[in-house]
Design goal:
Shape: globular
Keywords: Signal
Number of strands: 10
Distance between the termini: 58 Å
Strand order of the largest sheet: 1-2-3-4
Length: 180
């Protein structure tokens, strides 16, 4: 009798573990590439498509490689763990890069421009309207230039002017999808 109860308890634990693990393993992976100022960037995004919801990003990594270096660096990201009420035991990122571009300054230097989009959630009530998207800038070596600036901080446009990117403030930035 004890052996039968032990086997039943073990089977129940295995079913729960497998069901929880299957939520994350059901994610789709998309990869995108961008060349910028001699750097090669690769983005790997794992996400869930859920009916009537925003895309739910499980993880995202953007690496930058320079041909003259033997190592790659991972660009720092703004996304933080978030628990959505409709995804039991599957944390997602509260924001992910959805678009990017290589910008050329007046002096010819290249900069990586990424746009973050936050995911709507009762756990993230400030993610709405114009506050859903914000910009991060990196140099072609991978150095974050406006990390830590609040999303609508006037220092980002001022930094773009200082770097010789002012014309993008007037004409806009032509973004590529992060996973093309």
């Amino acid at each position: 009798m004890r052996l039968r109860l032990s086997l039943l308890a073990f089977a129940a634990v295995m079913v729960v573990c497998c069901v929880q693990a299957s939520d994350r393993s059901a994610g789709k992976t998309r990869v995108g590439h961008l060349n910028c100022g001699g750097a090669i960037l690769a983005a790997s995004t794992v996400y869930l498509d859920i009916d009537d919801q925003d895309r739910q990003t499980l993880s995202q990594t953007i690496t930058l490689t320079r041909p003259e270096r033997s190592t790659s660096i991972v660009l720092p990201g703004d996304g933080r763990s978030l628990h959505q009420p409709f995804l039991k035991d599957t944390p997602v990122l509260d924001a992910a890069v959805t678009g990017w571009a290589c910008l050329t300054a007046a002096d010819g230097k290249a900069y990586v421009y990424v746009i973050y989009t936050c995911v709507e959630s009762p756990s993230r009530p400030d993610c709405e309207g114009d506050r859903r998207e914000w910009v991060r800038l990196f140099d072609a070596q991978g150095k974050a230039l406006n990390a830590g600036f609040p999303h609508d901080d006037p220092r980002t446009p001022a930094l773009m002017k200082k770097l010789g990117l002012e014309h993008y403030l007037h004409t806009g930035v032509q973004l590529e999808d992060i996973d093309d």
